[in-house]
Amino acid sequence: MKIIGMIFALLITANAGNIELPASFKAQFEQTVTNADGKQIHYNGEVLFSDKKHLKWSYKAPSQKEVCTDGEEILVVDHDLEQVSAYRIDEGLDLSKILAKAQPYKEHIFITRYQGKLYTIQLDEKQRLQSVAFYDDMDNKVQILFKQMQYRNTLYPGSQMQCNYPSMYDVIRG
């Protein structure tokens, strides 16, 4: 699932040895997914990051969707389908070993490998997260660009990090 790969990519960048992130951040993002035939899908929205394990992706286009994680579960709220999907994150995942391997590649660029996949992380001139690129499970190239990055020294309230949805939405647990 592209969303899960994206979340893991950001979690990986959050703790990499030479990449330091603040307690939280907020940014606009543009995500491009390119398949083997060169066809692209473009997404955009806003991402919130807090305390190295809470993430909230709010997709605005091409469809309205929210993706939230607390480091143990991923919740995907598809407002167009009026559906919620909940997934447990594999308990065998050891991010600390992965992150310890993240190495500088070029100026402002870091790489790390996880489950045979290479993740490329780029920082801007102020050492803030600028982009993450990787190939997903279907060999699509995924690139996420962060804009209007706002680093903070305080955490976002838990209520702001949760995905909210109407009780009438279908809920699927995976």
Structural summary, described in words:
The protein has 174 residues and is mainly beta. Helices cover 14% and strands 50% of the residues. The protein has one domain: Clam (outer membrane lipoprotein receptor (LolB), chain A), CATH 2.50.20. It has a 12-stranded mixed β-sheet. Strand 2 and strand 3 form a beta hairpin.
Major sheet description: 12 strands, mixed
**Domain module tally:** 1
Give the helix level as a range of percent: 10-25%
Instruction: Classify the beta-strand content into a percent band.
Output: over 45%
Give the termini separation: 12 Å
Low-confidence stretches: 91-99
Query: Can you give the mean pLDDT?
Result: 84
Q: Would you identify the CATH architecture? A: Clam
CATH homologous superfamily - what is it?
Lipoprotein localisation LolA/LolB/LppX
- Oligomer state equals single chain
Number of strands: 12
Q: DSSP helix count?
A: 3
List the helices and strands and how they pair.
Blueprint: H1 2-15, E1 24-34, E2 40-50, E3 54-61, E4 65-69, E5 73-78, E6 83-88, H2 95-100, E7 103-106, E8 109-114, E9 117-123, E10 129-135, E11 141-152, H3 158-161, E12 170-173
Parallel strand pairs: 6-12
Antiparallel strand pairs: 1-2, 1-11, 2-3, 3-4, 4-5, 5-6, 7-8, 8-9, 9-10, 10-11
Give a brief description.
The protein has 174 residues and is mostly beta strands. It is 14% helix and 50% strand. A hairpin with a 5-residue loop joins strand 9 (117-123) and strand 10.
Give short descriptive properties of this protein.
174 residues; mainly beta; outer membrane lipoprotein receptor (LolB), chain A; twelve-stranded mixed sheet; 3 helices; 12 strands; 14% helix
